[in-house]
Design goal:
By secondary structure, the chain is of the alpha+beta class. The chain has helices at 15-25, 29-40, 53-59, 68-73, 76-97, 103-122, 124-130, 135-148, 164-177, 182-194, 201-211, 215-229, 242-257, 265-272, 275-288, 293-310, 313-316, 319-324, 327-335, 341-358, 362-368, 374-377, 387-411, 449-467, 470-473, 479-495, 497-510, 546-561, 592-602, 612-629, and strands at 416-420, 429-431, 436-437, 445-446, 516-521, 530-533, 566-574, 579-587, 636-637. Helix 11 crosses helix 12 (215-229). The chain is elongated.
């Protein structure tokens, strides 16, 4: 036993309190209360407070812990032992605050403290009956005892004790719901911060158990905590300081980012409760005018969490709400003015990658469209600091505005799909409702039963079964999502038709007699159409299924058999979880465009090249001829952008 815990030390107390201390050490609750009144009245010198340690140590003797039998019997002895233990915890708080408890003493106190904490937590209903209206106050004491168990920042006595995180979560609920106090949150946050593996399954299960027993209750607790950080003007509670928040956010970042999956159940539950909206509001709060280094550190942690969850599948769906509320644009507007490189890197990634990828989603654009004023929707709170940032912003802004315009036209019914008969000897073009689809694979379209029979003989018999799983592989993508991305691909193809033709000529010249396709990669940082050889299919982040391989083989074969009346457009897009490939056949009734481009490419001589001006003029003449034939509007009625 440490010398400062020996009962003989009580005799060194002032005579006025010595008797009370000896009786309290023997279990007298009344005398312990007298001791507290003497401490409050400062009748015991600060230098002598440490002599009370034996009193509290004796009352925390584990032999006095309630048992199931003693709980059933009840009586004064049970009440006395429980009140003595709680009183001892209460008495240890000022001793710790006055630095009267050393690390060695804390090491001897902790086993008794932990046993009593477990017992009082287990029989919390009984404790509430013995000490009415004190249950939440008891959990408040537990928080101070946890801090006592961590006397030195480099020492965590209780980190690996089973069941501790469940009680910590109940203390957390007490702080958030009933008694918000800075010191308690600091203590809780320090343990949260020091938890070496909060996302480990057994650790996470303890947090869940303590928060109410389900993922949803833990998610609700986290959201309630975040609400304390930026209270509304109607809130009666004082916002927590960055000092109290910093360690909490470090722990939360690890809890939500160190799991085995990006879309773990806890993250999904948070995102379904408006986590992105709450987090963007907090990021704006700290990004607007951080007052010190601690606030800047909290800002970086908020941004880290924001990016991590925006790039997850469940978070991807929340981008629309974050944009519609204007909070995400405010985050960009405030944070580009910060000097810290990590902050700028996050904003650069947000502007160049996350947001452009989202602006091709029907659901996200539908959410954004509910904002009444488009100009205000994308208005920044402050002017951008320099030309490079202005260039990045305008690149995103132009893409967003263009896609919003396409979305509005699509939603208003201005884009009517036109499909071609997949009997390549026929190739007739009709509205989608006027053409029949293969009832087995649901991929091929035919204008008549005869054309279906001909195509079956041409090779569809070998592909039909292989193509059948295709429509099931993207079953969580709605029909509107798939249809809109096709319409957007057609629009962008027609809008950039001149540049695409120039690229095709260059490819035809350098790769004579080699088939090619046009690639629109909406997952890349900067969208730029590419012309590629069919020998280089696009790579996906996820594995390519057998059905997708069959589709690629089938479409390449059909394009070759079309004799220039069909070209391949491949669109890549993502949803935060997977990258999807949409193959869009570009059909026409004649091969005017394809043949004309081949002719221009073949006009190059080995020792000289046509000037760029001459080539451009040739292509413009060719496109004019295409417009005369009406083939620029054959894919979707209403697409007339060139």
């Amino acid at each position: 036993m440490h010398p400062s815990l020996q009962t003989s030390n009580i005799t060194d107390l002032p005579i006025s309190c010595r008797k009370y201390a000896l009786n309290a050490a023997a279990g007298s609750v009344k005398d312990m209360e007298m001791l507290f009144s003497l401490i409050d009245a400062q009748r015991i010198p600060t230098t002598k407070l440490g002599l009370l340690l034996p009193v509290f140590y004796q009352n925390l003797d584990v032999c006095g812990c309630p048992t199931p039998e003693s709980i059933d019997i009840g009586g004064p002895k049970l009440s006395s032992s429980i009140m003595g233990a709680i009183g001892s915890m209460q008495g240890l708080v000022p001793l710790y605050q006055k630095r009267q408890i050393t690390n060695k003493v804390a090491e001897e106190l902790w086993p008794r403290l932990w046993t009593w904490i477990q017992t009082l937590d287990l029989y919390r209903d009984v404790v509430e009956q013995i000490i009415p209206r004190r249950q939440h106050a008891t959990y408040g004491l537990f928080i101070h005892m946890f801090y006592l168990a961590r006397p030195d920042p480099g020492t965590v006595l209780s980190a690996d004790i089973p069941g501790m995180r469940a009680i910590l979560a109940r203390c957390w609920m007490y702080l958030v719901q009933d008694d918000v106090n800075e010191a308690g949150f600091r203590t809780l946050a320090l343990f949260f911060y020091s938890d070496a593996a909060p996302a480990r399954s057994d650790h996470l299960l303890e947090y869940i158990d303590g928060a109410g027993g389900t993922i949803d209750t833990l998610a609700t607790l986290i959201m309630d905590h975040l609400a304390l950080n930026s209270p509304s003007s109607h809130s009666r509670r004082k916002a927590l300081s960055p000092h109290a928040n910093y360690h909490f956010y470090v722990g939360l970042v690890r809890l939500l980012t160190e799991g085995d999956e990006a879309d773990d159940p806890l993250s999904t539950a948070l995102l379904n409760r408006g986590f992105i909206r709450r987090l963007t509001a907090l990021t704006c709060h700290y990004g607007r005018d951080p007052k010190d280094e601690r606030e800047k550190a909290v800002l970086q942690l908020c941004l880290s969490l924001l990016i991590n969850k925006l790039t997850a599948f469940a978070g991807y769906k929340a981008v629309g709400d974050a944009l519609q509320s204007h909070r995400l644009i405010e985050v960009i507007g405030w944070c580009v003015h910060h000097d810290h490189p990590d902050v700028k890197d996050v904003i650069r990634f947000l502007l160049n990658t996350v947001l452009p990828r989202c602006m091709v989603s029907y659901s996200i654009l539908s959410t954004i469209s509910r904002h009444r004023n488009e100009d205000k929707l994308f208005s920044l709170p402050k002017p951008l600091p320099n030309a490079p940032w202005f260039e990045k912003w305008m690149l995103f802004y132009n893409v967003a505005k263009k896609n919003m315009e396409v979305f509005e036209s699509y939603r208003n019914g201005q884009y009517i799909p036109i499909r071609g008969c997949d009997n390549m000897k026929c190739g007739e073009l009709r509205r989608s409702q006027d053409i029949k689809r293969c009832g087995s694979c649901h991929e091929m379209n035919y204008c008549s039963t005869e054309c279906q029979r001909v195509d079956w003989e041409e090779g569809h018999r070998n592909m039909c079964d292989r193509l059948r799983p295709l429509h099931l592989e993207s079953d969580h993508l709605t029909l509107r999502e798939r249809s809109f991305i096709t319409a957007l691909g057609h629009h962008d193809h027609e809008a950039s038709i001149l540049d695409l033709c120039l690229k095709k000529i260059s490819f035809m010249h350098s790769h004579q007699d080699e088939a090619f396709y046009t690639l629109f990669d909406y997952t890349s940082t900067h969208f730029s159409p590419l012309i590629r050889s069919v020998q280089r299919p696009p790579r996906l982040r996820t594995s390519t299924s057998n059905a997708m391989l069959a589709q690629w083989e089938d479409q390449v074969s059909r394009a070759a058999r079309s004799e220039g009346r069909m070209e391949l457009l491949v669109v890549l897009f993502g949803d935060g979880k997977s990258t999807y490939r949409r193959m869009v056949p570009l059909r026409s009734q004649t091969a005017v465009l394809h043949t004309g481009l081949r002719r221009i490419a073949g006009s190059f001589e080995a020792d000289m090249q046509l000037s760029e001006v001459d080539i451009r003029q040739e292509v413009e003449n060719l496109l004019a001829r295409r417009r005369e034939l009406g083939e620029h509007a054959l894919q979707w009625e209403g697409v007339q952008t060139d």
